[in-house]
Description:
Bound molecules: S-adenosyl-L-homocysteine
Strand content: 5-15%
Helix content: 40-55%
Shape: elongated
CATH class of the largest domain: Alpha Beta
Order of helices and strands: EHEHHEHEEHEHEHHHH
Number of strands: 7
Largest sheet: 7 strands, parallel
Radius of gyration: 27 Å
Amino acid sequence: MLSNIRIVLVNTFHPGNIGAAARAMKNMGLTRLYLVSPRDYPSFEASQRASSATDVLADAVVVDKLSQALEGCSLVVGTTARLRTVQWQQLDSRECGELLFDESEQHEVALVFGRERTGLLNEELELCQSLVNIPTSEAYTSLNVASAVQVLSYEIFMASRKGSIKQEREIKDEKDQLATADQNESMYDHFFATMDQLNFFGSKNPEHVMRRIRCLFGRARPTVREVQIMHGLLSVAQGKKDKGKKPE
Ligand code: SAH
């Protein structure tokens, strides 16, 4: 649930970054911004950079200490521009989006961003259970903080869409479900019989050809309806079925 996800900005120096982060969040369906001791806030520049996300800014919770922003959260993920020596579970941006979204279905979670110059302090990292690093070119690993908010908010949003796409699939017509192994097998048998009848194999090794056909459909993962179309086509090729009437 996106409303269970907090984006926490620690000690942000430039108010423009706060505004840009609010905008990035709203674009991706996130609304809960926490500001830990921002240097200059509220600010005109923050509102300007937020553009149509001034509502996210207006609702932002301002606190003095990181621990206050994390009250009630069962999972806290910290962001870092460089990989640290173990101790924490380390995630990449995609894994982070999936973990945060999955857990947000059960409880409140937080994603913490550090200062522009120095990132998060060790004592702040101690409050996190996992760390996330956005993979970058080795030549320059540090993103602007609002850009980092954008990338990770996007990953959370994509993870949330995956869930709804899955659900959509579940309620679809039965014929749009993936064909089962036995349905595929009967299609391959039909392919074999038809090709054999048409003398397609000639000097070719039928086993090799059939393996290719299996690979092709294995990659495509046809639905029940698509397998039925193949049966229809093969039956016509075998002369067992009238071709469908052409539309007028
Ligand atoms: N020198 C600092 C860089 C801070 S960049 C450091 O090494 O941590 C400011 C903030 O942007 C970081 O604290 C983090 O919240 C975020 N950020 C920047 N680059 C990132 C990356 N590659 N992966 C994850 N977060 C990043």
